[in-house]
Automatic annotation (TrEMBL):
Pfam families: DALR_1, tRNA_synt_2f. GO terms for biological process: arginyl-tRNA aminoacylation; glycyl-tRNA aminoacylation. GO terms for molecular function: arginine-tRNA ligase activity; ATP binding; glycine-tRNA ligase activity. The keyword ATP-binding applies. Residues 611-708 form the DALR anticodon binding domain. It comes from Candidatus Desantisbacteria bacterium CG2_30_40_21. Tetramer of two alpha and two beta subunits. This is Glycine--tRNA ligase beta subunit. It catalyses: tRNA(Gly) + glycine + ATP = glycyl-tRNA(Gly) + AMP + diphosphate.
Length: 721
């Protein structure tokens, strides 16, 4: 079976476009071949800054043959009363390229119709590809694209050549040129490395593609280029010795995965070179030097036992003139580090505390206010959280609010440190260093705080309060950092909701989903007993937001909590059953979900959930009757007396277990009611005509409802088949 090769040759494509572009090409090719009923064995994609390519192995030579039935006019219109074919029948036969004698009658739900059976011979694959490959190419979307030449097509960068082969045959087509006659024609020609092998290359068969390109100094496989980069870095690091012990440096691949991915898409033939810089720059904060290398220049720092060495590694795209390449990169980095040193020395002339006043001139969000006003709110919210977590005397409570759950042990937190960290946490945004290196926000706050003789705890909290920066990022390790991060994020969410900046669909310009997720993750990973409802009310009070905002934000946070718990592996209905009872405490919700997931393994739980759903359905049918007082004298049947006694016998025990948050044991005890509830429904009619008796039995059901809803809502559990 033949192989298919398509290569789109271009000007330099941005590194971030290559992998998404290859993914689209793979999906489009799969859709094309499957839709056209052309079989294939496997697909490989290749990409460099100058080409996007796909190789499909084992392509069928043609489409599969198909047998179809084509319906024509109704039988009544196809034949007259004597059974002779009418003009309608003749016209149908003519349109299908057959004779009247080949037509058949087919019975359908709508009646009898004329039909013809046709055997469709599949088209050769090369014809199908010739027709569809131009559309596949121009169908690839990029964040930004451009027109060129005759301006008929758009692509990430101008397309310069197209290689299209099915085995050794060129798939002939033209891209663009329909109006200008200046399109790009497919061929079996490609080009090698721009500097090392710029001549054209003829590919005689797709199987030769990878090896032929490698001979021309083009490594088309992205993963192979990554391996070459990592190996080259490791080899170079071993050459950089520290001290006299001759010990080589090591490369932490995980720490620089993203940079390796990016650099691999910047070169076609990676060559790792080592350079150096003046040791005086090692006196700068390590993060500054590393950021200057990685973010601005795409260099790799050389480390030894987490200590930065005065060397760097650069991935060049050529083997030519390594000394010139090295010296050029050293010169560029020297200028970068010189600027960073200037910023570092200049910024320290003004303390973080002095910079807070300058925040009054900085707009945080146009509809909300200044950065200074945000800082004030963060201080107030963080102080409230800290005081409640501290659980000291009543006098320590912040304006009487309660932002944590009751029943926890006291936690010792330095309130003044929390306030000071909150006061300074945004001050580094006004420094020249953060202006030049925005990703160092918070990190530079840490260094400048230490330079201002702030405590280590305050400095670390400033650095940590931006965490987590993504859905799977680490959360703050210190309690003050966690408090500060939660205060900052909940303020941003409430403030944006207040002015209508609410995430919709895929639009979330202020990353509120990520910030909400951060709050949930911080609380869960630190087992913090924070009550989200009271936290949101505190933040709304600081923003002077309307009460409706509290409900909107709570719904938003509940969605993120639900998402988090399901991604942790809990069943969706288990999560729903727990959050229906209480979604205000993530830590508590996790305990409920864990207990319910475990107890669902018991055989009684599913039948019990069916019975509880029946209880809830009956109570919903009588929403106005909410009396839960049961009169024993009116319990006529043995089964309802037995159920009432069972409820009374476990009520206090369940309450005590819920207060201790021992939800598994509470559910285990509640599961013991299954038999009594089933017996009750088997022998007792709840909705009797006698109003007093009906109200008493509804009260008994309300007792069951109240008992179970202290833990979870079992009625929301789905039944297994």
């Amino acid at each position: 079976m033949p192989d298919l090769l398509l290569e789109i040759g271009t000007e330099e494509i941005p590194a971030g476009y290559i992998q998404p572009g290859l993914k689209q090409i793979r999906e489009a090719m799969q859709s094309l071949l499957c839709g056209e009923q052309i079989g294939f064995e496997g697909i490989n994609t290749y990409g460099t800054p100058r080409r996007l390519a796909i190789l499909v192995r084992g392509v069928a030579a043609s489409q599969e043959d198909t047998d179809i039935e084509v319906l024509g006019p109704p039988k009544t219109a196809a034949y007259d009363t004597q059974g002779n074919p009418t003009k309608a029948a003749e016209g149908f036969a003519r349109s299908q390229g057959t004779n009247i004698e080949n037509l058949k009658i087919k019975t359908t739900p709508k009646g009898k119709y004329l039909c013809v059976e046709k055997h469709i011979v599949g088209k050769p694959a090369i014809e199908v590809l010739q027709e569809n490959l131009p559309g596949l190419i121009i169908g690839v979307n990029f964040p930004k694209s451009m027109r060129w030449g005759n301006k008929e097509i758009r692509f990430a960068r101008p397309i310069r050549w197209i290689l299209a082969l099915l085995d050794n045959a060129v798939i002939p087509f033209e891209l663009g040129g329909s109006t200008s006659g200046k399109g790009i024609f497919s061929s079996n020609i490609t080009y090698g490395h721009r500097f090392l092998a710029p001549s054209l290359i003829t590919i005689s068969h797709p199987k030769e593609y990878v090896s032929s390109m490698e001979k021309a100094f083009v490594i088309v496989d992205v993963d192979k280029r990554k391996q070459m980069i990592v190996s080259g870095i490791q080899e170079e690091m071993q050459r950089q010795k520290r001290g006299e012990d001759g010990k080589g440096s090591t490369f932490n691949t995980d720490a620089f995965n993203d940079l390796v991915d990016e650099v691999a898409c910047l070169v076609e033939y990676p060559v790792v070179l080592a350079g150096g810089f003046d040791e005086k720059y090692l006196s700068l904060p390590q993060d500054v030097v590393i950021t200057s290398m990685c973010e601005h220049q795409r260099y790799f720092p050389v480390m030894d036992d987490n200590a930065l060495l005065p060397y760097f590694l650069v991935v060049a795209n050529t083997t030519n003139s390594p000394d010139i390449v090295r010296e050029g990169n050293e010169r560029v980095l020297r200028a970068r580090l010189s600027d960073a040193a200037f910023f570092w020395n200049s910024d320290r002339k003004v303390s973080l505390d002095e910079r807070v006043e300058q925040q009054k001139k900085v707009v945080w969000q146009e509809k909300v206010g200044t950065l200074y006003e945000k800082t004030q709110r963060i201080v107030e919210i963080a102080e409230g959280i800290a005081k409640e977590l501290n659980k000291g005397t009543e006098a320590q409570r912040h304006k009487g609010t309660k932002v944590i759950d009751e029943g926890i042990d006291p936690i010792s937190i330095d309130i003044e440190s929390v306030k000071q960290a909150a006061w300074l946490c945004k001050a580094d945004l006004l420094t020249e260093m953060v202006g030049e290196f925005p990703t160092l926000q918070g990190i530079m706050g840490y260094y400048y705080a230490l330079a201002d003789n702030e405590s280590e705890g305050v400095a670390i909290a400033i650095k940590e309060h931006y965490l987590p920066k993504s859905f799977d990022d680490n959360v703050p390790e210190t309690l003050i950092g966690a408090i500060l991060s939660i205060a900052d994020k909940i303020d941003s969410i409430v403030a944006c909701f207040q002015v209508g900046l609410i995430p919709t669909g895929s639009e979330d310009p202020y990353a509120l989903r990520r910030q909400a997720q951060g709050i949930i993750n911080i609380i869960l990973k630190n087992s913090m007993p924070i009550n989200l409802l009271l936290l949101v009310e505190e933040a709304c009070g600081c923003c002077h937001a309307q009460k409706e905002i509290t409900l909107e934000v709570m719904r938003f946070l509940k969605q993120r909590l639900e998402y988090t718990l399901t991604t942790m592996g809990f069943a969706a209905d288990t999560v729903a059953a727990a959050l229906e009872v209480d979604s205000s405490s993530p830590s508590d919700a996790l305990l409920r979900v864990t207990a319910l997931e475990e107890i669902r393994k018991m055989p009684d739980i599913e039948p019990l959930s069916v019975s509880f759903k029946r209880v809830m359905n009956i109570l919903r049918s009588e929403p106005l009757v909410r009396d839960d007082k049961v009169y024993e004298s009116m319990l006529k049947e043995e089964s309802e007396r037995k159920l009432y006694q069972s409820i009374c016998g476990i009520k206090e025990t369940v309450k005590a277990l819920v207060e201790k948050k021992d939800y598994f044991e509470a559910l285990r005890i509640l599961s013991g009611l299954r038999g009594d509830i089933d017996s009750f429904f088997d022998t007792v009619m709840v909705m009797v005509e006698a109003p007093d008796l009906r109200r008493n039995r509804l009260a008994l059901l309300h007792g069951i409802e109240s008992l179970f809803l202290q833990v979870v809502d079992l009625s929301l559990l789905r039944q297994t088949d």
